[in-house]
Specification:
heterodimer; A: mainly beta; six-stranded mixed β-sheet; four-stranded antiparallel β-sheet; about 0% helix; globular; B: mainly beta; seven-stranded mixed β-sheet; about 55% strand
Chain lengths: ~110, ~120
C-alpha cells in the first residue's frame, strides 16, 4: 500500500494568517493526489483534485503544489470557516489511501 | 444534484455481519464507480472498496476477506456487507461516488457500533 503522511497533525493559527499543510507519499504518485476538507460530523468535501485543480466553488485563497512524493496545501488569509480538518488522498493505485489528517485550530 | 443516503442498523454484535445500503438519487448509476469509506471515531479515513456499474469490484486488501459490495440498479442502490465484525469495525460508514479518480458526492455517513 502507498502510505500518505500529513504534517502537521494539528496546527494553530489566527484569522488572516497563512498556513501550509504537507502531504508526503511513500512512493511517487505523479499528480494523483486529492485534498478534502471535513467539518465535524460531516462528510469530507472535495477541494482539490489531480494535485492542482480546484473544485468548483473553492476559494482562490487555497493553493496547491507538488508532484511525485511531496505536496502542499496553502491557505492564505485564513477565514473562520477554514478552521476544520483536511485530508490528502492518493489515487495512483488501490487501495486509495488517505493521510491521517490535519486539524486546523483557531 | 446527486444525493446519496446510507441506511442500516446502528448497532451490530461482535462476530455478526454489518449490512448497509446506499440509495442514490438525482442521477443514473451507470458509468460510475460506487464506493464505501469508513472513519473510526476520532480517526482518519479508510477506503473499503468500490463496485462499477458493470458489477466489477475492487476491495481494500486489508478487508477483502470480509467485505462484499453489491449493486442493485433496479433500486438505484448499492450495499456493503462486512462479516465477522469486531470492535475495530466501529466507525462512521460513508458511501460515495468515485468518478475519474475522485470522490465527488458523499452520503452524510452513518455510525455503526460493534458491541454486545
Amino acid at each position: 500500500d502507498i502510505q500518505m503522511t500529513q504534517s502537521p497533525s494539528s496546527l494553530s493559527a489566527s484569522v488572516g494568517d497563512r498556513v501550509t499543510i504537507t502531504c508526503r507519499a511513500s512512493q511517487s504518485i505523479s499528480t494523483y493526489l486529492n485534498w478534502y476538507q471535513q467539518r465535524p460530523g460531516k462528510a469530507p468535501k472535495l477541494l482539490i483534485y489531480a494535485a492542482s485543480s480546484l473544485q468548483s466553488g473553492v476559494p482562490s485563497r487555497l493553493s496547491v503544489s507538488g508532484s511525485g512524493t511531496d505536496f502542499t496545501l496553502t491557505i492564505t488569509s485564513l477565514q473562520p470557516e477554514d478552521f476544520t480538518s483536511y485530508y490528502c488522498q492518493q489515487t495512483y493505485g488501490a487501495p486509495y489511501t488517505f493521510g491521517q489528517g490535519t486539524k486546523l485550530e483557531i | 444534484q446527486v444525493q446519496l443516503q446510507e441506511s442500516g442498523p446502528g448497532l451490530v454484535k461482535p462476530s455478526e455481519t454489518l449490512s448497509l445500503t446506499c440509495t442514490v438519487s438525482g442521477d443514473s448509476m451507470s458509468s460510475y464507480y460506487w464506493s464505501w469509506i469508513r472513519q473510526p471515531p476520532g480517526k482518519g479515513l479508510e477506503w473499503i472498496g468500490y463496485i462499477h456499474y458493470s458489477g466489477s469490484t475492487n476491495y481494500n486488501p486489508s478487508l477483502k476477506s470480509r467485505v462484499t459490495i453489491v449493486l442493485d440498479t433496479s433500486k438505484n442502490q448499492f450495499s456493503l456487507k462486512v462479516n465477522s465484525v469486531t470492535a475495530a469495525d466501529t466507525a462512521v460508514y460513508y458511501c460515495a461516488r468515485w468518478k475519474e479518480r475522485l470522490f465527488d458526492y458523499w452520503g452524510q455517513g452513518t455510525l455503526v457500533t460493534v458491541s454486545s
